[in-house]
Amino acid sequence: MSTRVTEMPRLPPVPRLAWVLAFAVLAGLFAWAVFSRLPPMVVRVGFAASGATVPLDYQLSVFPVFGAFCGALALDLVRGDDRRTWLPRAALVATTGLLSVARVAGTLPLSGHALFLFAVLGYELAPPTDRDAPLSLALVIPSLLVVGWCKLVVWGDPLWFGASAVLGTALGAVLARIARA
Prior knowledge:
This protein is mostly helical. The chain contains seven helices and two strands; from the N terminus they run αββαααααα.
C-alpha cells in the first residue's frame, strides 16, 4: 500500500489592509456585545451629569478606530515592523485610555471619544503621514461625525469637545513626530 502525501497549496499572505479592517470589525462587534448588555451611561457635559443617556451608536463609534489602530500596532509588533513607532503608538493608546477612564469616573470634563479620535487623526496626518493614514481617515471621519453631532448639536458641549479636539490632535501630532524622527 502506497502512502502518498500531497502538499496543501499555500494561501497567499493576507494584506495589511485586510488585517487592520478585521481588527476594526472585531472591535466594533466586541463593543456592541458588551455595551448592548450594559445599562446606558449618563451624558456628561463638562463635569455635570445630565438626565439623558448615551445612545449605543455613540458608544460604539470609537471602537472600529480603536480596533484598527491597536490592530495595526499589534501587527507591527508580531511582524517586527516599524519598531520606532511602537512606543509612541502605545503611549497614544495608554494616555487617551487613562484620560477616558478619568472622564467616565467624572474627574475630567474632556470627551474621551473625541480625545482618542482626534489623537489618531493627529498621529496619522502629521508629516510624513503614516502608511495607515488612508484607512484611519476612512474610519475616523464617520466616527467624528457621530461624536461631533452628539457633542455639539444634541448635548450642546462645544467647549469640552473643542478642548478634547485640540488636546487630542496635539498629542497625536507630537507622538507622530517622535515616532517618525
